[in-house]
Amino acid sequence: RNHGNHVASVSQLARFLAEHAEEGGAAILPETDAQKLLVADGRVRGIRTGDKGRGRDGQELGNFEAGSDIVARLTVLAEGTQGHLTGAAISRFGLEGDNPQVWALGVKEVWKVAKPLHHIVHTMGWPLRKRARYGEFGGSFIYPMGEDMVSLGFVAGLEYRDVEFSVHDVLQEFKTHRLVRKILAGGERIGWGAKTITEGGYHALPKRFNAPGLLLVGEGAGLVNVPTLKGIHYAVESGILAAEAAFRALQRGESTTRVGALDSYDEALRSSYAMKELREVRNMRQVFDKGFFMGGALASAMTVSKGHLPPKEYGGEPNDAATLIRTDRAKSYPAPDGKLTFDKLSSVFLSGNRTRDDQPNHIRIQREVPRELAELWTRMCPAHVYEVGADTGDGKVHVELNPSNCVQCGAITARGGRLTPPEGGSGPEYTLT
Ligand SMILES: Cc1cc2nc3c(=O)[nH]c(=O)nc-3n(C[C@H](O)[C@H](O)[C@H](O)COP(=O)(O)OP(=O)(O)OC[C@H]3O[C@@H](n4cnc5c(N)ncnc54)[C@H](O)[C@@H]3O)c2cc1C
Ligand code: SF4
Hints:
With 433 residues, the protein is an alpha+beta fold.
């Protein structure tokens, strides 16, 4: 149930919170990326910011500005989904959880509508295929935003198997359903965005949420409730608990880089309402690997028993574990008409993407791969960054890249490549999503 909840644009909420943080004395460095975690003697010392003003081959341009080290007694990583430094910290300090972390990709649009929507819509399944062999899991949301806007999106797990699967196109297909058409009739699309959402849940949480000199908070630490598709409240709660733990340690005159000095954060988080909720739904995501109907039945048992049934724990596989298949999936995608359905490039334009064309490439992938993998990346990317290039002659193809289209959704990190932090200030300029 979402009755009584507020519906807001998270980018506007973040701007509002930033103003309050500055009023409270915080210094905010906008348009600055944290490129590297500074670790010395097994302790986190801060972060290094990225250079600005480099050309495509890394050469210094006229406006070049070197990155700098920001050292601190305590570093809190709050990078959200697919955190680059968070991933490095988890691996450096051996914090990996029991299950591998997994992600879904969400593509979202904001529409100005002719008639107000007065209720919330959540769906599961269609246009996804229900049989387990396709590995398609996900659903949609449609939220009213005031009297004249709606926010709608489709979220699908990134473990799908079909090389032609594309969440952007599935959202376009979803909008052709007569009930969705009715909501959007006479309206205009005014916003678009794409982002992964962390879906591993309780069993994929890091072993510890702290290391010497470091705290992990929010979605970067895996704190997302998958059945409700919500992570903002856990990000806020973990941020508060991290601030309180840091304050306690500093007030005691403790060295925050001493092993165990920040354990009170873990204790507070583990006894919080967030962890109780995550524990109740800990197996909910994994059971859908058995297909829509079996997964639905098991998930219902978990919901009514508050996580006690069935009495077993479920493991998980990484998103890229399954072998790829091809089943003409793309045939069902509607052709873009520029009114109800849209292509990827016009969508990237609507995201206000500010990445320079001559910026260094921030996507790490193998450039020569089997054709199926190149096609999977091409379809998967909501921003049309990858293209299947020429045959290399040994059964592989070259992958062409347009990194300046990238909206930093993070999907590539789940499927065999890596999104690294691009130059600060680049990427989409979300204002409504
Ligand atoms: C389609 C979709 C719909 C969702 N719907 C809901 C919903 O209805 N309700 C809900 O509660 N949750 C929802 N979520 C989840 C929710 O958005 C996140 O869980 C939440 O925003 C996480 O907050 P956070 O502060 O941890 O991270 P984020 O909000 O992701 O913030 C992290 C910030 O850090 C920046 N960053 C990352 N790495 C670096 C770096 N190295 N250097 C500098 N900056 C960096 C990022 O650009 C970002 O601005 C949804 C997610 C998706 C994808
Ligand atoms: S290139 Fe960017 S937008 Fe495309 S899948 Fe990778 S991270 Fe997402």
